[in-house]
Amino acid sequence: MKKVILRLNEPSEKQWMFLKDTHRYVGYGGARGGGKSWSIRFKAIILGLRREGIKMLIVRRTYEELEKNHIRQLKDLLLPLGIAKYNATRRIFTFVTGSTIEFAYCQRDDDLGRLQGAEFDVIFVDEATQLSEYQLKVIAACCRGANDFPKRIYYTCNPGGQGHAYIKRIFIDKRYVDGENPEDYSFIQAKVTDNQALMSKDPEYLRMLEALPPKLREAWLNGSWDIFQGQFFEEFLDDPKHYEDRAWTHVIEPFDIPIGWRIYRSYDFGYSKPFSCAWWAVDQDGRLYRILELYGCGNTPNEGLKWTPQEQFSKIRQIEDEHPYLKGKHIQGVADPAIWEASSGQSVAETAAKHGIYFEKGDHKRIAGWMQVHYRLQFDEHGIPMMYFFSNCKAAIRTLPLMMYSETIPEDLDTNLEDHCLVGDTQITTRTGQRKIKDLVGSSGEVRSSDGKWHKYHDVRRTREKAKVFTVTLEDGTQFTGTEDHRILTEHEGWCPIGELQGKELRICR
């Protein structure tokens, strides 16, 4: 066999740790410039040349990122040496050992369909925090197979992104749930100062990071997982040192509610998504205190307990009858107007009333509401805000720092919904016939979905204005229009955003 010398840069100390780590789940990074993508390629090459017939997968959020950060570099390195071949149609490298590297992107949940039934021995998820917890778990489920090669998943990551909470929990906080073995997890913190190759090649990069605004500098330079780019409520501070004196922190120790303070109840219905009920006290200065909460979420973030309205309000009634903060108090309730809708049977508000729980309709002006929260989180010159959270309100304390800005509306919160891609004139099938989706705003009912079944809908609203739209023309003259991220099922490419179809001739699945 012809001897080939493969010359690669000398790994840094942290990169050597990554290359040698044999845990099932390995996290690497935590700051900018740590050499994460290089480490993935180096590890994949080593495995591909040392092992026969193993299957590897590299994942990023978009195909463009895969091409820019991995595919081009692997082509330039491997193909001239003749140690691997690349199939551009299948996007797969095959080493002389028979081992392979495949690629997958996951910008939306629909993209996961390409991995259905797939099995890999090693999976690399680059910039893992850019993917959701659901996406990361589905991808991880593909790390399986009948051979005796030890299965491993490598995550590289920076603070921030929709997967921030999940990656932080398993690698930084090391809080595990049923089915997760702590001994399977390892995290290697790598910063730009650990990457001597980058420091020598581009010393200005470090100075650029040092010149960033304080909070962004903490995340990108020092790898702080409590502060990150895109954080919606970046004013929020949780400092246990000040729980007692209540200065320069939003989280404080609970105390007995003084007589005369008003008590409010806020409620947001959820079933497959979490429901949320919170109780607030208001002092004489108008300062808000979140004193108690009931959050309908299990071990998986953003996944509801699937309690019926009857179960939810039965529990709320019990809390208000028994908890010392609330027992015997007059409580004024505010809720999302959607709970008064009764498309079939009894509305959620009517169920609440049967338990002696009443609400006034809240305001749907979301951005104005978020601005009010921003205002209340600001500290005065003495470090006192207009909003506090009792330390027992764990759900709010966990989720508030993780909320991120919407990508499409700069002042709005990212609701992480998947249905923002339909233009107003899109025709959908309802119980009353074909109707434009824009004509359903403010209504509720049932629509026929892609599975051929009827599904209930409510809370239809406009989510974007002046969005770029694309029109697709089929060979029979049929046209349809959607925003650039509207997904179209193609025969060979799978689900593709309309915006990526320009200049292509593809077979559409109808």
UniProtKB/TrEMBL annotation:
Superkingdom of origin: Bacteria
Pfam families for the chain: Terminase_3 (PF04466)
Annotated PROSITE patterns: INTEIN_N_TER
CDD domains: Hint
Domain Hint: residue ranges: 419-510
BP-aspect Gene Ontology terms: intein-mediated protein splicing
Family matches, as Gene3D superfamilies: 3.30.420.280, Hedgehog/Intein (Hint) domain (2.170.16.10), P-loop containing nucleotide triphosphate hydrolases (3.40.50.300)
Coiled-coil region: none
NCBIfam families documented for this protein: intein_Nterm
Name recorded for this polypeptide: Terminase-like family protein
Source organism per UniProt: Wansuia hejianensis
